[in-house]
Amino acid sequence: MALVCAGVSMLFLVFVGGKDADTARARVTGAWDRTVPLIRQGYLPSVLPAGKDMAIQVLDTRQRVVASTPQLAGRPPMATFHATSDSVHAERVLCSPAGLKGCMTVFSYKVYQPDGPWLLYVAVPTVPWYGNTAALFFAIGMSLLMTAMTAGGTYRLIRKDLVPVDAIRAELAEITATDLHRRVPTADKNHQEINLLAETVNDTLDRLEGAYKRLRRFTSDASHDLRSPITAMRAQLEEALMHPDDTDWPAMTAAVLGGVDRLQAIVTDLLTLARLDARAPLDLSPADLGQLVRDELGRRTYRIRIAKDLQQGVFVDCDRLRITRLLVNLLDNAERHATSQVLVSVRATGSAATLEVADDGAGIAPEHRETVFDRFTRLDASRDRDSGGTGLGLAIAREIAEAHRGTLTIEDSRRGARFVLRLPLSEALQPAGGRDGRTAHAGVSGR
Ligand SMILES: Nc1ncnc2c1ncn2[C@@H]1O[C@H](COP(=O)(O)OP(=O)(O)OP(=O)(O)O)[C@@H](O)[C@H]1O
Ligand SMILES: [Mg+2]
Predict the structure, then answer these.
(1) Number of the ligand closest to the Cα of 375
(2) Quick check: helix, strand or coil at residue 378?
(3) Which CATH superfamily is domain 285-441 in?
(4) Could you say which of 132, 140, 231, 334 has the lowest number of CB atoms within 10 Å?
(5) Residues with beta carbon inside 6 Å of ligand 1?
(6) What per-residue confidence (pLDDT) applies to 383?
(7) Which residues, 6+ apart, have CB-to-CB distance to 308 below 8 Å?
(8) % of the chain at pLDDT higher than 70
(9) Which atom of ligand 1 has the smallest separation from the CA of 334?
């Protein structure tokens, strides 16, 4: 607005300056019109009528002042220049011409008389480019007013627009760890960008609240799972101490040892998870996934039949200990839930290696296929805590898969649960220029 005002004011002032200059010129012409006939007719009075801010002098052929306006009475000629031989009129700006104050524009005319050319000087105040000070102050005043009004209006408008942002800020400032259920307000539909901001903040708060709830549940589950065996062991020990003679000490010791085993298992799992959470570096090396599975299956015997479909030469970069741990967790679950058999398969699909563990048990309902990966989650069917595990097995398995840049999911199957692990194929052993591991590593497949 300031720039626009400056531009418009310039134009306005130049216009006023032009107008004022025209007016001054017209006054000079008027003076010429009035004086020249008097000179020609010989009726020239020695004191000419005074015009406002205008001074006139008439000089005869010998450069003597024969007539002038009152302020120049008895004064020498105000100027010495005169028109050239081929023109009758000349004009100059003189700052303080003789006998006058301030800068004046002096016009000089030749008036031809029988005894030679006389000179008529008419002086008027010089018109500045902006015309007059009133116009200048008017332009400056209007510009300041317009700029101030625009600035004020814009400030109020922006403040009004930013009210929702301030509301979001205030709400966020109040949301603490215990107030995570609160959400920032959304603005009206005129503030689309601010609404998007509020929605994004609310999404972030949703996720934060979810993570916070999971953490709280995990902490309470962990303490509960640790407390149960401790309470049981404490009761057994107190009972034994109260009736030392009636106690079967070896049996009691074995029972307490069972509790200690369980505590140890939970603490070991928690430590494994903590290390995985901390993203401890993996000891990666290329390994044949099929061979790894075969080795693990050969290491121990299972109460049910394990069918194998293991493609050879499916190489992945993995931490053997951790991938074996993942496999054991899946096999333990499958063995626990299968009715008669478990199928373990390994194959390369595109750029991924796929390991599947499928059993023919009751399976896992689609709505639980994500929650079973949460820590300490055991479905109702597995709630028998003595025979069941700690509920950390799948959480650990998924963390291991993700640490290897892979995924572990439960997918549809005709019967039972089907766990699918996908890992990127080893890049070190990929054929040059190709991503399809199948061609490089496809080998004997069979059970
Ligand atoms: N193959 C399966 N068939 C049916 N349900 C399963 C299967 N595998 C896991 N689940 C369900 O998922 C839950 C979580 O499994 P997870 O391995 O994490 O814990 P867990 O086996 O109970 O204990 P842990 O493995 O820590 O000893 C199990 O309690 C069980 O209810
Ligand atoms: Mg398990």
Answers:
(1) 1
(2) coil
(3) Histidine kinase-like ATPase, C-terminal domain (3.30.565.10)
(4) 231
(5) 329, 333-334, 337, 359, 361-362, 364, 372, 377-379, 381-382, 388-395, 417
(6) 54
(7) 293, 294, 297, 343, 344, 345, 447
(8) 93
(9) 1
Higher pLDDT, 381 or 338: 338
- The answer as to CATH 3.30.450 being correct for domain 2-134 is yes
pLDDT, residue 435, reads 43
CATH of domain 177-280: 1.10.287.130
Ligand at minimal distance from the CA of 382 is 1
CA distance 1 to 3: 5
Max intra-chain CA distance, the chain:
164
pLDDT band, residue 388 (cuts 50/70/90): low
Any bridge partners for residue 357, and if so which? 344, 419
Q: What is the pLDDT of residues 37-72, one digit of tens each?
A: 999 998 999 999 877 789 999 999 999 999 999 988
Question: Taking 70 as the threshold, does the pLDDT of residue 436 lie above it?
Answer: no
Residue 323 in contact with residue 397, Cβ under 8 Å? no
Given a contact cutoff of 8 angstroms between Cβ atoms, the answer to whether 368 and 410 are in contact is no
Distance CA 294, CA 270 (A): 28
